[in-house]
Amino acid sequence: MTSRISDSIRVARAADAPAIAAVHVGAWRETYAGLVPAHVLSGLSVDRRTEAWGRIISKPEAFNSSAVFVAEREGAVVGFGCCGLQRAENLNAQGYDGEISAIYLLRSFQRCGLGLALMSAIGQELQRRGRKPMGSWREPEGLPILRETRRRHRWVQEGYSPEWCCLCRGSVRLA
Question: For the chain, what are the domain ranges?
């Protein structure tokens, strides 16, 4: 896996964990306000997320063989995405053996191509690993951005369970 995917997307390094954690918490607070109880959002901890992302980046084999990518603008991490092996047994049994486990961008950097660039990097990584289909956590009601992105780029939703939607099998070009 090359470390620089494009001018704005690269493979995350352990030193990126604090910035990824700050984006993770910030994006949750921006995106889920009004959808998730306020006490949950205020209880999110950048320090705890930093520890978690540091472990994931440093020992990917212990976390579903995760690969983490960051989106940068002017040298600052403004988003990230993560993929790995499918965790849901029922989807794995259906042939969905790859998973998009996270994709977050700060609101001010959404709708400028970085999300698509992250999805492309994730798609390329899963294809490199021989993982053809992908699964993604299903977006909650009231949060249409993933649905809009799928529609705009003609990605398909092939499978479904209450927690998951399965994206991008066969006819979808991510790279």
Answer: 9-167
Amino acid letter, residue 58 = S
CATH 3.40.630.30 is right for the domain spanning 9-167: yes
**Per-residue pLDDT tens for 56-103?**
999 999 888 899 999 999 999 999 999 998 887 877 787 778 888 888
Contact 157, 150 (CB under 8 A): yes
Q: Which residues of 25-37 are buried (b: 16+ CB within 10 A; e: fewer)?
A: bbbbeebbeeeee
> pTM of the full predicted structure?
0.79
The set of residues, in sequence order, having a beta carbon less than 8 Å from that of 126 and lying 6+ positions away, is 83, 98, 132, 134
